[in-house]
Amino acid sequence: MHCYHSSFFTLSVQEKKLIAVNGNWYDITNFIDYHPGGTIINRFVGKDASSVFQAFHKPTTLKHRKPVAKVQVNHELDAINEAFVNLGEWFERQGYFKTDYYWYCRKLIVTFCMLGTCMGFVCWVESPYRLFGAIALAAFWQQCGFFMHDAEHNQLTRDRNLDSWIGVFFATMCFGVSSSWWRHNHFIHHALTACVHYETNFFDPQMREPVWVQNWKLYPFYNPRLNVGVSRFST
Ligand code: HEM
């Protein structure tokens, strides 16, 4: 399996389901079925999940949870995890995660102008210029996909419920894609990005959906060529 995440097993898991976060093991045996992020958590049982944990959770999420043991550090892998966590904190300090509402308002206006343009072409323009309406509609859908993405990441209002309704509006109503299906797949995509099991398939569902360009056939096809290209370039 090729997986670019640090994962190490230092504690015998027995019947308990344990996850390591920031140097501590947490017992999630009774919580796992109620996890708000869904079943993706199962993939990290017995592993160090510090970096994915930081990516998906508020810093206060573990405040009321008692760790059951300290992690025995695997220095090489832990360095990767630590670097990732530090990078995330640095982005936070730089303010990259702050929502720029002015920017989103402009984007919203442009997006609905595209829908208006589409309607204008369809209703008031004769063929063959009506085709421009299709282009405007494609651009509108594409931008709805973008809003869906940010809403499902809780990036818009930071209120999980409200963002999820905004996601339903843009994804399900405007774009025609189930927002919860997309959200589920997208969480796996972020947690197991580029994780590939060549004999079976991708772990990352968004690398094999036939609707996306990254068809599963393409990855083994491009990978050796990319490697050759990169090695030629770097020698
Ligand atoms: C000690 C283990 C964990 C606990 C106690 C935990 C708890 C929670 C809680 C309480 C939430 C709600 C949001 C929040 O309060 O931050 C959440 C959301 C989530 N968790 Fe976990 N979690 C754990 C591990 C994981 C792991 C290993 C993953 C792997 C990817 C994961 C993925 C997610 C996702 C995708 C969400 C939804 C985030 C969103 O809506 O934007 N969690 N988790």
Please state the structural category.
mainly alpha
Q: Could you tell me the number of beta strands?
A: 5
The average pLDDT is 81
| Main sheet: strand order | 1-2-3
Proportion of residues in extended strands: 5-15%
Question: pLDDT under 50 segments (min length 5)?
Answer: 1-12
Domains (count): 3
The best one-word shape is globular
Q: CA-to-CA gap between the ends?
A: 27 Å
Characterization of this structure:
This protein has 235 residues and is mainly alpha-helical. It has three domains: 18-94, Cytochrome b5-like heme/steroid binding domain (Flavocytochrome B2, Chain A, domain 1); 101-191, no CATH class; 196-234, no CATH class. It is 51% helix and 6% strand. It has seven helices and five strands. The chain has helices at residues 50-56, 75-94, 101-124, 131-152, 160-175, 179-191, 218-234, and strands at residues 18-21, 24-27, 69-70, 196-197, 201-202. The strands form two sheets. A three-stranded antiparallel β-sheet has the order 1-2-3. Strands 4-5 form a two-stranded antiparallel sheet. The longest helix is centred in the middle third of the chain and has 24 residues, at 101-124. Protoporphyrin IX containing FE (HEM) binds next to β1, α1 and α6.
Task: Based on the model shown, name its key terms.
mainly alpha; 235 residues; disordered N terminus; single chain; Flavocytochrome B2, Chain A, domain 1
